[in-house]
Amino acid sequence: MKTIPTYHKALLLAGLAGMLFASNAAAQRIDNTARLYPFAGVYVLPSGVHLAVDVQDGDLAVRPLGQAMPGAAPATQHIFNQKADAILAGLSENDAAPLRVAISPRLRDRVADLERLFTVFVQGHGALKSYRVMGTVSHGKGRAWTLAYLSFEHGSEVLRFSWKEDELMTIQRGAYPTPSYQHVASARFESATGRDKITFNLRADGAVESMTVTGRHGAVTAYRLDDVTALR
């Protein structure tokens, strides 16, 4: 029987220990992430601005989504919302026909890229559980953004549909600054600097009702949209 030199044994033990610690750390991250999912969702500030709360790398990320298009004709906003809903319904069934109909004829070559974007989400987060079109925001002359919140098995995404006149120009992931908040205790989180804090307010049954954000300008409470994670 061959004997393993002492230094080889040390290397093997170090490698095994590294694998063990790495797997334990990964398991802890997964466990922590699972505990944060109940806080994820969309919340509404008194001003009408929507905030998307997502789980990213074991922390909570908060991004503003905007609010309903000010002063816009309800019919116009409704049309964009309907188009975005039809596109998402189609992509969730691997049907790009609504996307091809909505996108500008000059940009039809982008359809495959936008389909791949949705595929990447599914590969990274698992199957799509639900989605909700959050509304349309005015963005200058003849331009608008429609925002949608997608909930997957293991994550969520915010999409921004960009329109010019009545044509879709592109679909992007929510491109907003995304401050992250670390879990402190129970339903409390704080930013890396410790200056900004979030406390989630729970109902008697333990469900999240609202979140209070406290910063240098005071505190404000945003209420959760309960129907965001409901299946269509």
Spatial strand sequence of the major β-sheet? 1-2-3-8-9-10-11-12
Strand content: 35-45%
By helix and strand content, what is the structural category? Answer: alpha+beta
How many DSSP helices? Answer: 4
The CA-CA distance between the termini, in Å, is 65 Å
Q: For the report, how would you describe the main beta sheet?
A: 8 strands, antiparallel, barrel
Helix content: 25-40%
Number of strands: 12
Quick structural gist:
By secondary structure, the chain is an alpha+beta fold. The chain has helices at 6-36, 74-92, 97-102, 111-125; strands at residues 41-44, 50-56, 59-66, 128-138, 143-152, 155-164, 167-173, 180-185, 188-191, 197-202, 208-215, 218-224.
Describe the model.
This protein is of the alpha+beta class and 232 residues long. The protein has a domain at 68-173: Nuclear Transport Factor 2, Chain: A, CATH 3.10.450. It is built from four helices and twelve strands, in the order αβββαααβββββββββ. The chain has an eight-stranded antiparallel β-barrel with strand order 1-2-3-8-9-10-11-12. A four-stranded antiparallel beta sheet has the order 4-5-6-7. A hairpin with a 5-residue loop joins strand 9 and strand 10 (197-202). The longest helix has 31 residues, at 6-36. The chain is globular, with a radius of gyration of 22 Å. Residues 6-30 and 227-232 have low confidence and may be disordered.
